[in-house]
Amino acid sequence: MLFLVGANELSMSEYEWAGGVRGEAIEVIKGKYTGLPILTRAEIPIEVFCNYADPMEEGPFGGWTGYYVSGSRTLLDGNEIYSHPLQIWGVNDMAKTKIVIGMSGASGQNYGIVLLQELKRIQVETHLVLSKWSRINIDEETDFELEEVTKLADYVYDEEDVGARISSGSFRHKGMVIVPCSIKTLSGVANSWNENLLIRAADVTLKERRPLILVVRETPFHKGHLELMLKAANMGAVILPPVPAFYNRPKAISDIVNQTVARIIDQLGLEHNLIQEWQGINYKEEISR
To answer: Are residues 71 and 186 located together in one domain of the fold?
Structure first.
């Protein structure tokens, strides 16, 4: 369809036309050499300059067109071919990675806030859903105002808006994190009880085979809690309780929070500088003590 539209003389590009039909803008970048729009999600876009002035005879099997014909074809001079797989020359900088963040009513709101801060710092587009009790607990256990938290996200949704864009599998993103994740929310996810947008978005993430990270904040666990976590894990979710580590010698609560948030971001396959990567134990130094 885009090919047919592009072949006609329109006052707009075919991508503008497609965006109007779709009801949502098509993400494009400007070609490095031609200046033409290129789809950000194209797997291997290639920019080439065709040397029309110097055609050459093609072989007998018509490799240029795929047909068994021969003849004179336009030469693509090797010195003027610019092949740019977008992953190599910066599509991640041009088309923002999208992550869905859910914050439920468990204790541990700081984990969600710090995650939002770090994703904003590394220029990841965030779509945030706050439960009613998350909003209450932000005021109860942090020094942040609710407005300060919501401003960290690019988009914020009402928990009851089950028709929001993140409720559909057609909304493409790189993963979802529920942090903190209450046992009630865990139960909703494990049983596909899509009573609100938070759980619906998580269910969609699982059905689309995208990463879903559940930062379950409860202790101790009884058998029912463990069975819910196992059920969610069997469906594809990553269970990531905020368990502190001490090999990085934390000196403040923020160090402990950063360690868990770093592990969350690791699961999303994104870069961060919250903690130093483990370099291993210096055995010689240890033995000499």
So the answer is: no
Residue 51 near residue 75, CB atoms below 8 Å: yes
Which residues are CB-contacts of 90 (< 8 A; sequence separation ≥ 6)? none
Q: What is the DSSP string of 30-44?
A: E-TTT--EEETT-SS
Domain count, the chain: 2
The answer to whether residues 19 and 130 belong to one domain is no
Q: Note whether residue 278 is domain-resident.
A: no
Enclosing domain of residue 46: 2-89
- Residues 98-119: tens digit of each pLDDT: 999 999 999 999 999 999 999 9
Decide: pTM greater than 0.70. no
Q: Tens digit of pLDDT for each residue in 40-79?
A: 666 566 776 666 666 666 555 555 455 545 556 655 554 4
Secondary structure element (H or E) that encloses residue 157, with its range: strand 155-157
